[in-house]
Design brief:
The chain has 140 residues and is of the alpha+beta class. It is built from 2 helices and 10 strands, in the order H-H-E-E-E-E-E-E-E-E-E-E. The longest helix has 18 residues.
Length: 140
């Protein structure tokens, strides 16, 4: 085998390893918004839709893990119930920080939304002012 042919074979092997290497295809998209202000108990308040930006490689990729973080100014009632929904699935996201693999396998372009609710039938003592809301979607 000539030196040129060997170099070509090595380049081909390295290219194939790169194509099929899971680490090469892994990525993450991050979306941020404001958590909604909650003014009344018993009502559902939805976040803005959180989706990947235009530079995210969508084709051929699937979600592996989703993580979130949100905060509220001031008091945080223990009756606060939060769900993260996407692709027809919802998970409990009542902890202000968390992660899940429940959305694994869904297309990377899946949009997400948070649903917030303070359990109970009456007006909240004071409005619960929404703070920053961050969603991190890992994919491969």
């Amino acid at each position: 085998m000539s030196a040129g042919l060997r170099v070509s074979a090595i380049i081909l092997i390295l290219a194939l390893v790169g194509i099929f290497s899971p680490a090469m295809a892994a990525g993450r998209w991050v979306a941020q918004s404001d958590a909604p202000t909650l003014r009344q108990q018993g009502l559902r308040y939805d976040s803005a839709t959180l989706s990947p930006n235009n530079s995210t490689p969508l084709s051929g990729n699937a979600i592996t893990r989703v993580a979130w973080r949100y905060d509220y100014a001031g008091w945080r009632p223990r009756e606060l119930v939060v769900q993260l929904c996407g692709g027809g699935r919802c998970v409990d996201a009542s902890n202000a920080r968390g992660q899940t693999t429940a959305f694994a396998g869904l297309p990377v372009a899946t949009p997400f939304r948070f649903n917030f609710r303070i359990q109970g039938p009456r007006a909240a003592r004071t409005p619960l002012e929404g703070g920053a809301l961050t969603l991190m979607v890992n994919f491969r």
